[in-house]
Amino acid sequence: FPRHETRKRRAMGDEDLLEYLKKSMGEQVTGERVTVLYGTDTGNAEMVAKNFQFEFKRRGMKAKCLSLNDMPISDLAEESKVLAIVATAGQGEMPKSAVKFWQDMETFLETAPADYLKDTKFAVFGLGDSSYVFFNEAAKRIDEAFEKLGGERVQSLGLGDDQHPGRFDTELEEWSPDFYDNIEAPEPPQELSPPSHLVEILPVDDPKAKRMEAYVPAGSKPVQMTVKRSTVPEGYERAIDHFEFDLTGSGLSYEQGDSLGLWPSNP
């Protein structure tokens, strides 16, 4: 298999892999489903996309989730319902996991038939920041491309904004109910989900309450935080802090624009 196909298969769950193999063998695949695509740099759009996938399945619907780069444009027309969650990088640029998709899309749009997605319903939700000039530009481009290809927009473009008190969740919480209604999703089951964590409260003198050694995930290095400083006025709607870390002896290096993953440990 080409490298792209191998990576695509590895990212699939059991249900998606079975469907993929059936299609590869020429078998008919039955049942409608929602395909959730995401374009992300920091992981927020992927998290939102996977939350949608979980909710679809909770409501009894088929759903698969993958990055835009892992969705060949040649397969788009086979998808009956598509939801794209797209973050905007830098000054209106595509996020890393959507760059290849968009390059292919721009080329495809030059000669694509106007009804290429005539059997596809779509919606796009963007994660952006209105303090930037090109607010949610990547999501706007994806939304316009799907429309130009003849897709049926079932929900107006959602414009998540980091400047809102709840960041992109503020808009997402208003946008999502209408989206579920517009694709005629079943109502969610009226039941509590199983707890994701179990908590045991211990007295301070319990032996099990003693301080644990700091956990260092594989491939990570312990470093000391030396500076934490607020960059916004007191009383601002949310915290925006500046951090500095001492990398001496850690072997870690970085370039401008890199992201740093943290696993904090209290002293």
Task: Give a quick summary of the entry.
It contains seven helices and eight strands; from the N terminus they run ααβαβαβαβαββαββ. With 267 residues, it is of the alpha/beta class. The longest helix is centred in the N-terminal third of the chain and has 15 residues, at 44-58.
Could you explain how this protein is built, in words?
The protein has 267 residues and is of the alpha/beta class. 28% of the residues lie in helices and 18% in strands. Strands 1, 2, 3, 4, 5 and 6 form a six-stranded parallel beta sheet that branches. The radius of gyration is 22 Å and the shape is globular. The N and C termini lie far apart (49 Å). The relative contact order is 0.10.
The H/E string reads: HHEHEHEHEHEEHEE
Radius of gyration: 22 Å
Mean residue pLDDT: 85
- The parts where pLDDT drops under 50 for at least 5 residues are none
Count of helical stretches: 7
Major pleated sheet: 6 strands, parallel
Query: How widely separated are the two ends?
Result: 49 Å
Number of strands: 8
Share of residues in strands: 15-25%
